[in-house]
């Protein structure tokens, strides 16, 4: 599909952050933008599954919050256990004085993308597919513009580029913006969760419908199981033509590094093995281990993948594509959002949430910048963007630090506290989590940090 030869804003990437950027610009009265994506259609893998309160509030601003809530399942409590017993129950009701969304919303990322895409389409916004960016350079006639070249040879000239094209961002690479781990005091390789195997599965036990979220702290690993909303079944049936009547569950588990890399698309046997070794005993396929006396087996793998837990952040979220010999603030503006700007461990479900908030807030700021530059020089107006991206980068660094702390707790490698003390650090961690579950203030702090309300 061809697109306009010229636009004020080009949004590269039509995932959740790209679509939210477009919707935010539209909401703030700016419509001269073009959205492109390299894929023929959106991705059907579920990936992120939780939208937190601060993100729902941001999406409310652009008219998408209520629609998402209607499609998802409200997570009112997070349960954390050992394989055999209870550790902590963390309710979201402590958020009630602070938000109209005192819960986490369970909704797969692909479904979130679908809802945002439908909203954009209803406003007349077109996503041009498939168009893969292969080049970007300063326009020969006007150095304030950039020519973006696509794989099919088409070129679009633009004044602003929003890079929402993911962790391997082509725009970020061409712009020469560095992307590296900020090197905080906790790395990923020091945990047992250096690699994860996520999967969407159904089970052969129809009675497994009495929980929404379970996290299991086992020795040297962490296991998660979340029940996905039935609306996701309906969405998949429409998209794939294959109806699924059984409840779909998201499974995620650390895969021991010493056993080799996780397969590209882990099999049913591979995921079942992880559940049997690290999941709660009542999900074990072994009847002799399962307290019910009956094994629970995976019935079908809907989707499976692998994840390496690592963090990186762009050196800046805003630059200008100036000529090499130019020291003036000229050239098209390059702005990074979502995974193009920052990535980190999926523990805590913070990645997509931060990206969506970046995008919604960017739309307002960018519309303001475009308006202001109609009457004052770019050099005077650019503080609007530099101040904004400095704040968003600070938020991203906070989230990276937070997720690394969560990773170090969930993926703690078991060792004795001292040669003379026969207690392991994992045992101590479990005691601390048990206490955390009993103390209101501590429960509230965990949920507050998860919600994003303190770092919008």
Automatic annotation (TrEMBL):
Keyword Oxidoreductase assigned: yes
Cofactor(s) named in the record: FAD
GO molecular-function term, one example from the UniProt record: oxidoreductase activity, acting on paired donors, with incorporation or reduction of molecular oxygen, NAD(P)H as one donor, and incorporation of one atom of oxygen
Domain FAD-binding positions: 7-185, 334-372
Coiled coil: none
Matches recorded under Gene3D superfamilies: FAD/NAD(P)-binding domain
InterPro entries: FAD-bd, FAD/NAD-bd_sf, RIFMO-like
Protein name per the record: FAD-binding domain-containing protein
């Amino acid at each position: 599909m061809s697109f306009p030869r010229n636009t004020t804003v080009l949004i590269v990437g039509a995932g959740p952050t790209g679509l939210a950027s477009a919707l935010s610009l539209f909401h703030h009265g700016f419509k001269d933008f073009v959205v492109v994506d390299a894929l023929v259609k959106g991705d059907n893998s579920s990936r992120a599954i939780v939208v937190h309160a601060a993100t729902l509030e941001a999406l409310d601003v652009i008219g998408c919050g209520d629609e998402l809530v209607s499609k998802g399942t409200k997570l009112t409590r997070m349960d954390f256990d050992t394989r055999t017993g209870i550790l902590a129950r963390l309710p979201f009701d402590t958020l009630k004085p602070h938000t109209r969304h005192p819960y986490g919303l369970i909704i797969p990322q692909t479904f979130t993308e679908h809802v945002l895409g439908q909203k954009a389409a209803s406003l007349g916004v077109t996503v041009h597919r498939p168009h893969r960016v292969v080049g970007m350079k300063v326009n020969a006639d006007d150095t304030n513009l950039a020519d973006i070249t696509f794989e099919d040879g088409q070129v679009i000239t633009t004044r602003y580029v929003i890079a929402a094209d993911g962790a391997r961002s082509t725009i970020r690479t061409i712009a020469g913006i560095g992307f590296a781990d900020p090197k905080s005091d906790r790395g990923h390789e020091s945990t047992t969760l250096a690699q994860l195997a996520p999967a969407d599965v159904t089970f052969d036990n129809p009675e497994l419908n009495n929980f929404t979220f379970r996290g299991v702290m086992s020795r040297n690993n962490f296991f998660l199981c979340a029940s996905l909303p039935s609306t996701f079944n309906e969405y998949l049936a429409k998209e794939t033509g294959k109806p699924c009547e059984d409840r779909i569950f998201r499974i995620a588990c650390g895969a021991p590094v010493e056993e080799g890399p996780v397969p590209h698309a882990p099999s049913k046997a591979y995921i079942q093995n992880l559940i049997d070794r690290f999941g709660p005993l009542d999900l074990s396929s072994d009847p002799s281990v399962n307290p019910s006396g009956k094994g629970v087996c995976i019935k079908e793998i809907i989707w499976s993948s692998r994840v390496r837990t690592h963090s990186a952040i762009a050196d800046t979220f805003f630059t200008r594509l100036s000529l090499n010999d130019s020291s003036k603030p000229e050239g098209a503006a390059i702005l990074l959002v979502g995974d193009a700007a920052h990535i980190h461990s999926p523990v805590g479900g913070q990645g997509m949430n931060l990206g969506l908030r970046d995008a919604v807030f960017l739309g307002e700021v960018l519309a303001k910048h475009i308006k202001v530059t109609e009457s004052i020089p770019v050099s005077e107006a650019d503080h609007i963007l530099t101040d904004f991206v400095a704040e968003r980068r600070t938020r991203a660094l906070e989230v990276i630090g937070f997720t690394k702390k969560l990773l170090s707790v969930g993926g703690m490698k078991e060792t004795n506290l001292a040669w003379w003390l026969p207690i392991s650090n994992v045992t101590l961690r479990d005691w601390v989590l048990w206490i955390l579950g009993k103390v209101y203030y501590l429960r509230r702090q965990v949920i507050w940090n998860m919600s994003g309300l303190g770092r919008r």
